[in-house]
């Protein structure tokens, strides 16, 4: 076969596959994608002691999953564990773990493997925010943001991905943020850690895809502000386009994205448009839009989580 004919054949195969993926995308835009069952799946949620982590635990409890709950806050985590049992979970395992400490993550992960078994859905949700302007932010706090919001994802993947690969079955969920898509003033360390988390999850997704590990799924979640207390005091100047989200609504969307095996979930939908605009608009226009949406001032009233972490 001549090289010209081989190239033409390669192009034809590529165009046919492209057409099929476009058709699939059209079908799933018109019809809801089927939802998978997560009954009996071992779901590990980090940061399960409050906020989104707690609500995720309750949703997966109702869906019949085995729950593994991690949090640095023992009391909050035990409360979630109790609530999950009341919501119908029969197997709930709560572990106190500081996800920002690599050795602690590995130690508790080994304990989980011995006591519960292989984790099949890993939700990296634990997160912190300093909410300080870059030059006012102490080095230790910036390092902590990276340890909890990003590096913890490396260590949990190292601990649980090998079994997912061996079983060709698993789902990796990264709770990033809209601050992982677009830089925001007053959130430099948080944004950097969330960009890193997103880039890491996307890269491992590409790696598993290129290795044809079809059983390993990834979901990357980028929400705008959610009323959990983490961004207490923050406001939106444009609630119609960028509303502060209700936690139950956000968690419903996250669980749906997992069940439908969506790769990306941005909330609210306007974020997809913002990311699209950013890819081609001149920076001066982008800054005007950011100013109009009040994004320069979203952190002005930040007080943050009042409870101890
Ligand atoms: N709330 C929002 O507006 C918002 C927006 C976008 C993304 N997010 C992300 O969603 C995730 C959940 O946030 P939330 O709003 O539920 O906040 P939250 O403060 O209510 O919950 C965070 C949980 O993480 C736990 N945690 C903190 N440090 C930890 C550590 N070192 N090890 C283990 N657990 C630790 C806390 O104890 C807490 O239970 C975070 O990753 C956050 O960055 C939140």
From TrEMBL:
Q: Which GO terms describe its cellular component?
A: chromatin; endoplasmic reticulum membrane; lipid droplet; nucleus; plasma membrane; transcription repressor complex
Task: Identify the stretch annotated as signal peptide in this record.
Answer: none
In Pfam terms, one family for this protein is adh_short
Its transmembrane ranges are: 12-31, 270-290
**Keywords on record:** Membrane, NAD, Oxidoreductase, Transmembrane, Transmembrane helix
Organism for this UniProt entry: Propithecus coquereli (Coquerel's sifaka)
GO molecular function term, any single one: transcription corepressor activity
Q: Which family does it belong to?
A: Belongs to the short-chain dehydrogenases/reductases (SDR) family.
Could you tell me the superkingdom of the organism this chain comes from? Answer: Eukaryota
Q: Which InterPro entries match?
A: NAD(P)-bd_dom_sf, SDR_fam
Q: Could you mention a single GO BP entry for this protein?
A: negative regulation of transcription by RNA polymerase II
Q: Which PANTHER family match?
A: EPIDERMAL RETINOL DEHYDROGENASE 2 (PTHR24322:SF728), PKSB (PTHR24322)
This chain belongs to the protein called Short chain dehydrogenase/reductase family 16C member 5
């Amino acid at each position: 076969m001549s090289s010209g004919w081989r190239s033409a054949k390669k192009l034809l195969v590529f165009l046919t596959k492209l057409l099929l993926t476009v058709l699939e995308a059209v079908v799933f835009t018109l019809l809801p994608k089927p939802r998978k069952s997560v009954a009996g799946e071992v779901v590990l949620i980090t940061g399960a002691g409050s906020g989104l982590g707690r609500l995720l635990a309750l949703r997966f409890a109702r869906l019949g999953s085995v729950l593994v709950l991690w949090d640095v806050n023992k009391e909050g985590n035990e409360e979630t564990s109790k609530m999950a049992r009341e919501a119908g979970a029969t197997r709930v395992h709560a572990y106190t773990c500081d996800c920002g400490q690599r050795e602690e993550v590995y130690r508790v992960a080994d304990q989980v493997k011995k006591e519960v078994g292989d984790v099949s859905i890993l939700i990296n949700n634990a997160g912190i925010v300093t909410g300080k302007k870059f030059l006012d932010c102490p080095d230790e706090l910036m390092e902590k943001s990276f340890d909890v919001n990003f590096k913890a994802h490396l260590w949990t993947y190292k601990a649980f991905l090998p079994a997912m690969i061996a079983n060709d079955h698993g789902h990796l969920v990264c709770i990033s943020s809209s601050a992982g898509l677009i830089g925001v003033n007053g959130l430099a360390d948080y944004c950097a850690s969330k960009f890193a988390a997103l880039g890491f999850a996307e890269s491992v997704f590409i790696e598993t895809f290129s290795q044809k590990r079809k059983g390993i799924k990834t979901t990357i979640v980028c929400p705008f502000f959610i009323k959990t207390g983490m961004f207490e005091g923050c406001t939106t100047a444009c609630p119609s386009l960028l509303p502060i989200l209700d936690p139950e609504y956000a968690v419903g969307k996250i669980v749906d994205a997992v069940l439908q095996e969506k790769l990306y979930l941005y909330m609210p939908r306007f974020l997809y448009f913002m990311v699209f605009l950013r890819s081609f608009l001149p920076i001066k226009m982008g800054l005007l839009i950011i100013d109009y949406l009040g994004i320069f001032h979203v952190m002005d009233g930040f007080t943050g989580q009042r409870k101890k972490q």
